[in-house]
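Thread: Newbie trying to understand structure tokens

Hi all, I'm a second-year student working on a class project, and my supervisor (Dr. K.) asked me to get a predicted structure for one chain before our next meeting. I've only ever worked with sequences, so writing a 3D structure as a token string is new to me. If someone could post the tokens and maybe explain what I'm looking at, I'd be very grateful. Here's the chain:
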Amino acid sequence: MRKLSVAMFGACLSAMLVSAPQYSGQAIAAEGKEPLVEFGLMTWPEVEAALAAGKTTALFYTGGTEQRGPQNANAGHNLMGEAIVKEIALRLGNAIAMPVLPYTPNNASPDLPGTIGLTPEILEAVLERVAEQAIITGFKNVVLMGDHGGGQPNAYINAADKLNAKYAGQGIHVYYCDEVYRAANDAFNDWLADNGYPPGAHGAIADTSMMLYLGGEKWVRSAELPTAVGDPPAQPGQGLQANPDGVNNGIFGDARRSSAELGKRALEMKIEYGVRQIRGFIGTGS
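---
Reply by user tm_fold:
Sure, no problem. This is what the structure looks like when written as tokens:
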């Protein structure tokens, strides 16, 4: 990885201080009856008490700010990420959800002006920095995961490997949880295919449905759904390449049959895959 200048790294960290919108959709766990697991909503004595009680796993979830077709809010990755990482922390019982990182590798475009992105090198440096800050704070396990494909897996794996080498033998571990993204997405897409839904990727049924479930009209412009179809999704291994002769509206696939019911199913899959993999890393204890 090439070294970052102090100014460049400082600018990146400053950008991270811009808070993503708070999750305000339908709660998966009953509101008012759940423990406080969001680091950004806790006071320092509450963090101290949580660590003493065994909540020594920090969950870092990366989102992303990017256009998501004409129907979806640009902060979709961050909005969904906040709901996912909070619920994972609640189900684990020994974890704290750190603030979602709102920027990941991507490139802005004047044609579809909804994207603000980083480079993989900057993301890797940020992941390494914030994970080590969590370690210094007192967390024994740090889990890195993301809602956006940019930077996965290399930035996450490299950051984890560096810190695992640095803290070897000290009872501290950094993990990359990849199944909450790729495996869960693939499983949901398989379910869609088995049940007669069209294939899709960015801006299509999966994320549009999750945003409908969590945020409704606030996050998804339902008036755009009847025409929410774009270019065909890329074949495996090809990446998301816009078709120069296509619609070029930011959608890869067909989002017209999106629904809150489908969104609940997709969200639950991501949470279940994440919880299962993290438990495999650290067990049910701290």
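A couple of things are worth pointing out once you decode it. The CA atoms of residues 8 and 14 lie 10 Å apart. The mean pLDDT is 89. Feel free to ask follow-ups in this thread.
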